[in-house]
Amino acid sequence: MFSRTESFSQYIRLYPVVTFFLALNILIYLVTIIPVIGTQVLYAGVGVNFLISDGEWWRLLTPMFLHGGIMHLLFNMFSLFIFGPELEKIAGKARFLTIYMLSGIFANIATFFLQAPNYQSLGASGAVFGILGAFGALVYYTKHILPQLRQIILPIIVISIVMTYVQPNINATAHIAGLIVGFLIGLSYFHPKRIVSWKSKKR
């Protein structure tokens, strides 16, 4: 399910939303490593709670497209590259877009309300955890139909949560909030009645 065997062109054609977010995050990271300009872009977009309080509301959105280093970027983009396509295929482009964006935004909102005024954050991990949360909802509805999905997803979610609290300098608030939001949206999207409705409309 999560092994990617598509060619580059097939991947782009089959998973346009995932491809868009991969390209956007990589492009913005490349901009941020340009001397002077990159520093200005980071300063303008990083999530800083007291600046959000002062009215810079865009910082509830922009942090999910910024990364603090190449390893930070690679970890999040690798996760998106592996897990994103299957969710985009199952949920559809618009629903995947909703899961990704709302999980990332609410992760930043939770960070704003639950962390100190001087707290700073950036990264796409809240949105990525939203993808895992949505898969968790799918497991909830299909646990007796697709036991192999449960065997794959649940250990990944558990390990991801553990690593959140083991690694230093991790915004655990964003990770957990993104996971919860993705799960709640997934409960709505993957409800059996909705699945039946989608199938009937495609006939």
Automatic annotation (TrEMBL):
UniProt KW Protease keyword: yes
Source taxon at top rank: Bacteria
Compartments, record wording: Membrane
Keywords: Hydrolase, Membrane, Protease, Transmembrane, Transmembrane helix
Annotated transmembrane regions: 12-37, 57-84, 96-116, 122-142, 149-166, 172-190
Keyword Membrane: yes
Pfam families noted in UniProt: Rhomboid (PF01694)
Membrane topology designation: Multi-pass membrane protein
Record-annotated Peptidase S54 rhomboid domain positions: 55-190
One GO term of the biological process aspect: proteolysis
InterPro entries: Peptidase_S54_rhomboid_dom, Rhomboid-like_sf, Rhomboid_protease_S54
Recorded GO MF terms: peptidase activity
Enzyme class per UniProt: hydrolase
Catalytic activity, EC: 3.4.21.105
Family per similarity comment: Belongs to the peptidase S54 family.
Protein name: Rhomboid protease GluP
Upper lineage: Bacteria, Bacillati, Bacillota, Bacilli, Bacillales
